[in-house]
């Protein structure tokens, strides 16, 4: 007996990606997935346990394969999720799987496509991969992905400037975000990369000795020497200030120095679009029932948002502005009915933001 698993599964065959029909068949050795072309020719065969459909319970009639499950998928020989090295609980233990019949786009990505989280200190994602100019980030916690999508939507109602737009999806059965590669081959640097190039050393040890204004002065000298951009110049500082003010608005905890990026444009170096908001909106808070005690931690120059805002306001008169919005416009289509962790807390907070905006 044969069962069609997907009409359009994206499958690697001899080093090329082909769109083939995936069929489940029973053989003496167990269940296998057969991939055939439009002429009915079998081009690949693999065991069900090693296929992109291994998470589907094919024996459960109520657990149907989503129609688009294979259409935009990359084959995965074994699912591997990168876990943070900061003693946080692993994704496998803390993150509930969404229901198979999800209204979100399902993607399966091969292990070799993922890059480990070694380029920065971000705590918000457990796996990251770039496929066809799209970045996919698997959420490291209960609702990091949802928080990032909501934060990027909120940015459109502010004057923070360009911000990467994130969309929700499911990658390898886990909630994730997807976004276009905003670099598109452009020459770019981060504070972290400039420091490494100029000093031959990572910036992290300096963070143990410098903070606040002294740290800003040090970073400014690195950026000035590396790319000729003067952070203290009013027009430049205004962009940095608005970014950090927006971080305070969404309570982003993780604006580390690999998340402050510069792009070389025709007129010279400038800030890249704001990105990476997966540690925003309480998504890294361990106990949501104790939000009244939330200390509002932040990066990069000061350890709390109130303290960093006071410093920003003392230097520049630029203020983040917020126009009216509907809370539902920011949260619709982001949470599954089966997984609504953080939704109430975020919506309550957005409602309070809206009250201040109007």
Kindly describe this structure:
The chain has 358 residues and is of the alpha+beta class. The chain has three domains: 1-75, no CATH class; 91-180, Phosphorylase Kinase, domain 1, CATH 3.30.200; 188-357, Phosphatidylinositol 3-kinase Catalytic Subunit, Chain A, Domain 5, CATH 1.10.1070. The protein is 26% helix and 22% strand. It has helices at residues 91-94, 144-155, 191-199, 204-207, 212-227, 234-250, 305-315, 327-331, 343-357, and strands at residues 2-13, 16-27, 30-36, 42-47, 106-107, 114-115, 125-131, 134-139, 167-171, 174-180, 188-190, 261-265, 268-271. α3 packs across α5 (212-227) and α6 (234-250) packs antiparallel against α7 (305-315). The termini are far apart.
CATH architectural group of the largest domain:
Orthogonal Bundle
Note the overall shape: globular
Mean pLDDT: 83
The CATH class of the largest domain, by name, is: Mainly Alpha
Distance between the termini: 62 Å
Task: Give the tally of β-strands.
Answer: 13
The H-and-E topology, N to C, reads as: EEEEHEEEEHEEEHHHHEEHHH
Task: Briefly note the CATH topology name of the largest domain.
Answer: Phosphatidylinositol 3-kinase Catalytic Subunit, Chain A, Domain 5
Helix tally?
9
Radius of gyration, taken over Cα atoms and rounded to an integer in Å: 23 Å
Largest sheet: 6 strands, mixed
Share of residues in strands: 15-25%
Please state the structural category.
alpha+beta
Count of domains? 3
**Poorly predicted segments:** 60-101
Strand arrangement in the largest pleated sheet: 5-9-10-8-7-6
Q: What portion of residues is helical? A: 25-40%
């Amino acid at each position: 007996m044969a069962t069609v698993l997907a009409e359009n599964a994206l499958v690697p065959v001899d080093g090329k990606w082909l769109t083939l029909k995936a069929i489940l068949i029973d053989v003496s050795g167990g269940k296998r997935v057969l991939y055939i072309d439009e002429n009915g020719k079998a081009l690949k065969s693999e065991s069900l346990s090693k296929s992109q459909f291994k998470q589907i319970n094919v024996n459960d009639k109520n657990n149907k394969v989503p129609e688009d499950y294979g259409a935009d998928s990359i084959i995965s020989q074994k699912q591997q999720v990168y876990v943070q090295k900061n003693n946080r609980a692993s994704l496998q233990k803390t993150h509930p799987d969404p229901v198979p019949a999800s209204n979100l786009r399902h993607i399966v990505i091969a292990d070799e496509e993922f890059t480990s989280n070694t380029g920065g200190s971000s705590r918000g994602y457990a796996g990251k991969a770039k496929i066809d100019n799209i970045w996919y980030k698997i959420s490291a916690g209960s609702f990091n992905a949802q928080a990032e999508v909501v934060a990027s939507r909120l940015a459109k109602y502010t004057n923070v400037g360009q911000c990467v737009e994130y969309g929700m999806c499911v990658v390898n059965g886990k909630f994730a975000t997807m976004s276009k590669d905003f670099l598109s081959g452009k020459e770019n640097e981060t504070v972290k990369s400039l420091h490494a190039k100029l000093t031959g050393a990572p910036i992290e040890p300096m963070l143990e000795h410098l903070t606040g204004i002294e740290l800003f002065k040090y970073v400014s000298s690195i950026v000035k020497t590396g790319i000729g951009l003067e952070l203290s110049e009013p027009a430049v500082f205004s962009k940095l200030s608005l970014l950090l003010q927006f971080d305070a608005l969404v309570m982003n905890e993780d604006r580390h120095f690999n998340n402050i990026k510069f792009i070389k444009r025709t007129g010279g170096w400038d800030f890249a679009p704001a990105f990476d908001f997966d540690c925003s909106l309480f998504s890294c808070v361990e106990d949501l029932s104790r939000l009244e005690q939330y200390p509002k931690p932040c990066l990069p120059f000061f350890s709390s948002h109130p303290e960093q805002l006071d410093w920003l306001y003392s230097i520049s008169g630029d203020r983040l502005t917020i126009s009216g919005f509907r809370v539902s416009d920011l949260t619709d289509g982001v949470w599954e009915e089966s997984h609504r962790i953080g939704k109430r807390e975020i919506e309550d907070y957005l409602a309070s933001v809206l009250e201040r905006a109007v």
